[in-house]
Specification:
Blueprint lengths: L4 E4 L3 H12 L4 E4 L3 H9 L3 E2 L3 H6 L3 E4 L4 H9 L13 E4 L5 H12 L4 E4 L2 E2 L2 H5 L4 E4 L3 H14 L2 E4 L5 H29 L4 H8 L7 H5 L1 H6 L9 H18 L4 H15 L10 H9 L6
Parallel strand pairs: 1-2, 1-4, 2-3, 4-5, 5-6, 8-9
Antiparallel strand pairs: 7-8
Helix pairs in contact: 8-12, 8-13, 8-14, 12-13, 13-14
């Protein structure tokens, strides 16, 4: 039987997942607190629900893509939340990036209700999500993963089972540590190119063919070259939450992160410029200002 899919949280990532599921022909039910997001989902062919619980009751596998701990608490345990579902066979896939204690608390509280949760964060940007260029690190009970796997493979090019609950988040922290650094290194390369009087788009093409390439050079380099960041695939103010989680995780295990620590200063500087709703590529604007280049919008 083909699994019925559910999505709670139809923002940048959740709406991309929903589009892929609908395009693949899966019955897809969704919910978001914002009426406009829900209407876009309905227009794309999804079945809009009146509450998270209604999503769970209509689905076999429910993916949650949420921006904050408060949103997570409301979606799962608020009035009409997922935890109130009458479908104990459903598998919940928590795909957001949160601290380990938040994820573990969610798992334990859902287990008390006889409900299964996977910790399965996603590595990739919103633009990558739209074209199924994502990696998912799924952790938790193997039987729950086996149920969710066909749905997850519909939205990602790589779906890996990585063991006990929480391992997925740990790997996501490591992945995002690298993204944080590579994003800044891409900004450095673009600004150096512009200061040298070279064409940044040509640089992206030429350097992208060699050993200096990275996924951030490919994905965010063009945004930095254009100096346009409003079409956000990860907003700076939301990513700040991820930076805090990574820093705390590294401290908790006693791992030095000198490059990551220095990189975070530029994200804070971009926030101070009022760029919180722009893409994380907007850190390039900080370097451009330091280099005496014209300010980006």
């Amino acid at each position: 039987m083909t699994a019925r899919a559910g999505i709670v949280g139809l923002g940048i990532m959740g709406s991309a997942y929903a589009g892929l599921l609908i395009d693949a022909g899966l019955a897809t039910t969704g919910y978001d607190v914002l009426p406009d997001a829900l209407e876009r989902f309905r227009a794309a062919g999804g079945s809009a629900a009146a509450s998270p619980c209604a999503v769970a009751d209509a689905s076999d596998v429910i993916i949650t893509a949420l921006p904050s701990v408060a949103a997570l608490e409301t979606a799962y345990f608020g009035a009409g939340g997922l935890a109130a579902t009458a479908s104990p066979a459903a598998v919940f896939v928590e795909a957001s990036t949160f601290a380990l204690d938040v994820k573990e608390s969610l798992r334990a509280r859902m287990a008390e209700r006889g409900l299964q949760v996977l910790d399965a964060p996603v590595s990739g940007t919103g633009s990558q999500a739209r074209v199924r260029d994502l990696a998912i690190y799924a952790s938790g009970e193997r039987t729950a993963f086996d149920t969710a796997q066909p749905v997850l493979e519909t939205i990602a090019r790589s779906v890996r089972y990585v063991g006990p609950f929480g391992n997925g988040s740990k790997l996501k922290y490591i992945a995002n540590l690298l993204v944080t650094i590579h994003n800044l290194s891409t900004a450095e390369a673009v600004v150096l190119t512009q200061k040298a009087g070279l064409d940044p788009y040509e640089m992206l093409e030429v350097v992208g063919e060699g050993a200096g390439s990275s996924r951030m050079l490919q994905v965010r380099g063009p945004m930095m070259a254009a100096g346009r960041y409003d079409d956000a695939t990860m907003k700076l103010d939301i990513y700040q939450k991820d930076l805090d989680v990574i820093a705390e995780f590294a401290r908790s295990v006693g791992a030095p992160t000198p490059l990551f620590t220095q990189s975070t200063l530029f994200y804070l500087a971009a926030l101070a410029q009022g760029r919180g709703k722009q893409d994380t590529a907007a850190i390039a604007s900080v370097l451009k200002t330091m280099a005496g280049l014209p300010a980006d919008p």
